[in-house]
Amino acid sequence: MATKVIYFTVGGRPEQAEFRSDSELEDVRECFRAAAEAGPNDILKLYNIKGNIVNISPKLEANRPNSRYKLQVVAATCSGPSASELGFDANGMERRLEDLERKILVESGETPPMVYEMRKKVESFREKLESVEHLSWLGLFKDISSGTSTPFWNKNRKARKSVEHCKLVLERFKKMSGVQITEDVRQHLRKPTFDNWQWDDSEMLLLLQQMYVELHLTTKFNIEMPVLQQFLYEVYRHYNQIPFHNFNHAFCVTQMMYGIIWLCEVWDKLSDVEVLTMLTSAVCHDLDHPGYNNAYQVNAKTELALRYNDISPLENHHCAVAFEILEKPDCNIFRNLSVENFRKVREGMIRCILATDMARHNEILGNFKALIPKFDFSNKDHREQVMMILMKVSDISNEARPMDVAEPWIDCLLKEFFNQSDMEKLEGLPVSPFMDREKVTKPSSQTGFIQFVLLPLFEAAACIFPEMQPHIIQPVRNALQYYKDMQVALEEQKKKAHNDGERNGDKGRLISPREKTETQANGHPTRNSKS
C-alpha cells in the first residue's frame, strides 16, 4: 500500500511524517508525539489551516507544504523537583492538619473557615510540588466518525453509564487535573465557536473545572478543588447515555454560558453569587434526563409526571437530582457559603433550570420583553429575568456555533426525537408532529425553530447585551439561511426524482439506478425489504 506524507509545523518549525493508511493508530500517534518532543502524559491536538482540530489517525488527509497542519501540546504535565527533593513532607503536613481539625472540632463543635482555607493551601501546595502522572491512553485522539443506523432507543434498557466506565473517567480526570492548559485553549474556551466534538469526557471535566477557576469562583466562595472535582464527577455520572440530552450537551450549554459571561463581561452587571448560580445551573440543567420529553412523561403517566403533578416533571427532576448531589459533603461546592448566599443560589438554580421547560418559553420571553424599555440591573426582579433568559439562550444555542460543530447536534436531537415518536406509536400515545420520522426532515425541523424561537429569544437578549449581535445572533441568521437553502435543494431533488419516476412509467414511486439496471436485465423490477 502506498504511503502518504503529512506536512505540519510544531513549535514554529516545519516537520513531515510519512506512514501508510493501514498503519496502527498507536504508531501514528507516537510519530506525532515524537515530533512534538512531548512526554507520554502530555495532551496533543492537531489543527488544520482553518484552525479546526482534526483527529490524529491513519485516516488523516494528506496535504501539501503550503497547507501544513499545526501540532500543539495543549496541556503539559507539570515537571520539576518533587516535594521530597525540596525537603518538604506534604503527607506529614496533611496529617498535622487533620489532627488540628479533629482537635478544633472536638473543642468547638464545628470547623472554622480558616481550617478549610489551610487545607486548601496544603492541597494547592502539594499539587505544585508533585509532578502529575497522567495516562497516555486517554482516548484523546478518538475517531469520532460513527454510523447512525442503530435501532431506536429502548427505554427499558439501562441508560446509565457502567461503574467501570465512570471509574476510568474519574481516574483520568484526577490524573489530568494538574496539567497546565495553554493560553490558546483558555481563550478558545471563552468563545461561542468552541468545538466540543474534539474533547473526551475526562477532558471536558477538566475544562469545566477550568471555568470555575477562571471566573475566580473557587477563591471567592472557598470551593476546595477536591470537592469541585467530586461534584463535577457526580454530575457526569448522573447524565445518561442518550442521543442528545447527555453530558456532552450539558458541557456545551455550560461552555456557552461561560462564553457569554466573558463576551458580555457579565461579572460587571450581575453579582458573584448570580454568576455562580448561572454556571452551576448550566452544568446541572438536564441531570438524569431519560431521553423522553415532558409530553411523553405526562401522556405515559410516568413516575416523574405523577410525582410533579404534570408540572415541568423533567425540569423539577433535574433540580432535585442536582441538590441530591450537593447534599453529599464531598460534593457540596456551596458548603462554605453563608446561609443567605446558599438560599440565593438554591432559589436561583431552581428558577433557571425550570426556565428551560420550553412549554414556558412564550411566558418567560414575553415577561422579559416587557422589561426591556425600562431594564435596570439594580432591580433584583430584572436580574432574575435576565438570568433565566441567558440560561435559555445557552440551552438552545447550538446554531450559534460553526456549522461543522452545530449540525451533528441536529442529528443527535432528531435521533432522540425519532426514538420517542417510535415509542409513542408502539404505546398508542399521541405523537408530536415535529418528532415523527415520517414527517420531519433536518431543514424542516430547523427553519421554523430558528425563525420563530431562537432569533426572537436571542434578539431580545441582545437588547441588554449588544455584544451578542455579531458573535451569536449573526451565526444563527446564517444557519437559518443554510437550512432554507437545504430545504429548497431537497424540494428540487424530490421534484426531479418524481419527474424521473413518471418518465420511467411508475408514477408516485422513485426508481433507483440499481432498479433501472435490474429492470433492463430481468424485465421486471426487484424490490428489497426497504422499498
- Amount of beta strand: 5-15%
What distance lies between the first and last C-alpha atoms, to the nearest angstrom?
39 Å
The number of helical elements comes to 20
Give the uncertain stretches in residue-range form.
80-86, 128-154, 507-531
* Total DSSP E strands: 6
Structural class: alpha+beta
Largest sheet: 6 strands, mixed
- How would you state the average pLDDT, rounded? 84
Order of helices and strands: EEHEEEHHHEHHHHHHHHHHHHHHHH
Shape: globular
Residue share in helices? 40-55%
The quaternary organization reads as single chain
Q: What's the Cα radius of gyration?
A: 26 Å
How would you sum up this structure, described in words?
With 531 residues, this protein is of the alpha+beta class. 55% of the residues lie in helices and 6% in strands. Strands 1, 2, 3, 4, 5 and 6 form a 6-stranded mixed sheet that branches. A hairpin with a 2-residue loop joins strand 1 and strand 2 (13-20). The longest helix has 36 residues, at 468-503. It is globular, with a radius of gyration of 26 Å.
